[in-house]
Amino acid sequence: MQPPGWGGNLLYGLLNSVIIAVGAFGFGLIIGVGGAYGKLYGGPVIRDLLEVYTTIVRAIPELVLILLLYFAGTDLINRALDVFGYDPIDINGLVAGIWVLAFVQGAYSTEVIRGAILAIPQGQIEAARAYGMSPGMLLRRITIPAMLPFAIPGLANLWLIATKDTALLAIVGFNELTQQTRTAAGATKAYFTFFMAAGVLYLLLSLFSNVIIGRIERWARRGMPAAGGAG
């Protein structure tokens, strides 16, 4: 854990991976809620644009999207700033990593949440509208609580995917767990040792996540009939 050891570096990389995964999943969830509502209740133009977004993101390999958004996106922002007379900026790698993965997560979250909303018995939605609930209150009081049991399994998978997708940021040189592991293995030539250590850390993160997800799922399904395999 102390220099010249690499244990501290690996834990620092794991912390960065968790921060990126949490940020990407959170912002992706926000995009997903908006995207699902747009595809279900938006106008034709909004629905078509969202369909293009989800189709492209799900069709193109994530590594290609990360390279495209990370480099081309930064270049486009600086070109736009130059047009308006502002100096170019150096975008923080952590922020860029979060938003790149959030863009990818948002497309998948959109479809998960859209399917969960469609699984809600429509009588509940119609009854809420009959009582005169505003769209915002309908979302908070009816739609989100009713869709959670249907959405959690898919969202749980997206969270686990987000923790692993952080490894793709190593290709752009960001110091998450995989990049730190590559650096340590290259310096010591102990490739098996360090990549096994990284695999164990990813596994421990997934096991801990499964415990938390199981508790959330039991909470979301409170009062509902027990389902085989739940929790």
TrEMBL record:
Chief place of localization: membrane
Membrane topology: Multi-pass membrane protein
Transmembrane domains' residue ranges: 12-37, 49-71, 91-108, 142-162, 190-213
Highest taxon of the lineage: Bacteria
SUPFAM superfamilies for this protein: MetI-like
CDD domains registered for this protein in UniProt: TM_PBP2
Keywords, alphabetical: Cell inner membrane, Cell membrane, Membrane, Transmembrane, Transmembrane helix, Transport
UniProt keyword annotation of Nucleus present: no
UniProt xrefs under InterPro entries: AA_ABC_transptr_permease_3TM, ABC_transp_permease_HisMQ, MetI-like, MetI-like_sf
Domain ABC transmembrane type-1: 14-213
Keyword Transmembrane carried by entry: yes
Family: Belongs to the binding-protein-dependent transport system permease family. HisMQ subfamily.
Protein name: ABC transporter permease
